[in-house]
Amino acid sequence: MPIITVKLAKGRSIEQKQQFVEAITNEAVNTLNVKKEWITVIFDEYERENWASEGQLHSLKFGEGFGKQGTK
């Protein structure tokens, strides 16, 4: 029974998360040879002010809207 945890910054839409869940579930079924109903996906979402890389908070490094419409 695979449990897949996805950690990401808040800001993705329900549609984006649903599309991701479908893709990752299908890939897990194919790769791990398990039934679809056995797959669980959990999102751990973080405020950008609680995530940092290269010594800088993401809220400062990327700004408020970063990631909401993709990474462009």
How is this structure best described in words?
The chain is of the alpha+beta class and 72 residues long. The protein has a single domain, classed as Macrophage Migration Inhibitory Factor (2-Layer Sandwich). Helices cover 32% and strands 25% of the residues. The chain is built from two helices and four strands, in the order βαβββα. It has helices at residues 14-32, 58-61, and strands spanning 3-9, 40-46, 52-53, 56-57. The chain is elongated. The relative contact order is 0.23.
Question: Which helices and strands, and how do they pair?
Answer:
Blueprint: E1 3-9, H1 14-32, E2 40-46, E3 52-53, E4 56-57, H2 58-61
Parallel strand pairs: 1-2
Antiparallel strand pairs: 3-4
In short:
Belongs to the 4-oxalocrotonate tautomerase family. The protein has 72 residues and is of the alpha+beta class.
CATH superfamily: Macrophage Migration Inhibitory Factor
Instruction: State the helical fraction.
Output: 25-40%
Q: Total helix count?
A: 2
SS-derived structural category: alpha+beta
Radius of gyration: 15 Å
- SSE topology string: EHEEEH
What is the domain tally? Answer: 1
Q: Report how far the terminal alpha carbons are from each other.
A: 35 Å
Low-confidence stretches: none
How is the biggest beta sheet arranged? 2 strands, parallel
The tally of strands reads: 4
The first-level CATH class is given as Alpha Beta
Strands of the widest sheet, in order across it, are: 1-2
Keywords: Isomerase
InterPro entries: 4-OT-like_dom, Tautomerase/MIF_sf
Family: Belongs to the 4-oxalocrotonate tautomerase family.
Protein name: 4-oxalocrotonate tautomerase
